Structure prediction request, 189 residues.
Amino acid sequence: MEHEADLIEELIADHREMGALFEQFDERPPGCIERKLLLEALTIELVRHAVAEEMHLYPAVREHLENGERRADYEIAEHSSMEERLKDLEGRDSEDRDLDRLVRDLRTEATAHMKDEERHLFPQLRDGAPPFVLARLGQKVREAKDTTLPRAHPQAPSVPPPDKLLAPGPGLVDRVRDQGTNSGHPVTS
Prediction:
C-alpha cells in the first residue's frame, strides 16, 4: 500500500512547489509575459495553501499545542500580510518597474514563514498531535485543494488565459480564497 502524506508532509510539499515557482519567476527576463503567468500561478498556490492551513493546520495547532491559540493567530496574521502583498501585485503588468522588488519582498516574507513552520511549528505539532490525526488532516488538505482552482505545477503554470486573469470583478487573491472557503469547510480566523 502506498503511503499518503500526512498534514505536515503535504504542507512541506506545497512549500517546495512555491519555492520552485519563485525560482522560475526569477529565471525569466523582466517584461516577459511568462513572469506574469508565473506570478498568477504563485498567487493561486500561496492563497490555496493559506486556506488549507487555516482550515486544517491552525485548528490542530490550537488543539494540540500549548499556547496554540496565540501561535495560530500569529500565523494567520502573517497570511494576511502576504495576501496584502499579493493584492498589491495583482494590478501590475510584467513591465512594472517595482515588480521585481515587490516579488522579492513577498518571497522573503513567504520563505521566512515557511522556514519557521518547518523548523518550529511542524516538529512541535508532530510531537503534540497523534499520528492518526495528522494523517486524517493530510487527507482533508488534499480534498480541500481538490475543490479549489487547478494546482499550478512548477514545470508548467496552469492558470487561466490573460483575458480571464484581467476580467473585472474580485481580484485573483479574493477569488481563490472565496473558492477555497466556500468548499464546505469553514476557515478559522
